[in-house]
Amino acid sequence: MAELIRQQRASLECWEAYAARRCTLAEAEAAARAAGQSEADILRCAELFAPYDDAQLAAMLDAAARTDRGGDVVRPVRWRLPSIAAGIAAVAAGTVLWVARTPAPAGAPQAAAPMVAHELSIVGVAEVRGSADAPASTVPFGSTLTFTLRPATAYTVTPVVWACAVKDGITLPVPTTSSAGKPGTTIEVDAALPSAVTPGAWELVAFVSSAPPPADRAAACAVVESASTKVARERFVVR
Q: Within this chain, do residues 210 and 138 fall inside the same structural domain, yes or no?
């Protein structure tokens, strides 16, 4: 029993030194063989206790700088004797031990910033009574519809705006151009109604987001409201 404990401690010490970069892999493997470890166990320990390289450490520091929640960052393991003992025991038992070693690459997409709600108003057109006896803006067929989006509160994110026209289950993307105002101020948007927006009652659906829309135009119209994307609606009539 005493000899077994001595061998285990010798194995722990050699792999601890390797993890801390105090010896090379060849030196650690030689010490492990001298302590009685099998070749299979040595191979798995070499992977388990491999030290972090400079690129991995740089990625961890970059991730730490870009998050306020320490729990979201995978940091280098502090190689303590009990944890190494557990690792050696798992390897000796043939257990597959997975270690989350690296965070997402520095260039990985980040979560979009929150966006505030906006009030949609169609401007510069006459209003008529709709079927529900509520006013609806009227625009000529094939014209450009101008509307504004007024934020509920100020914000600092540069907004992205797109729009769609909806009628009786038909959803059509509408090309838009918006004014380059300061973030957090009222946005003025011109929407060029395509010929498919035929005479009749329609609903204008405007999206204000901190992230760009999907490349597919139909998918852009199907985006649902979320923390980063707000949706506003307004009825209008094409005559």
A: yes
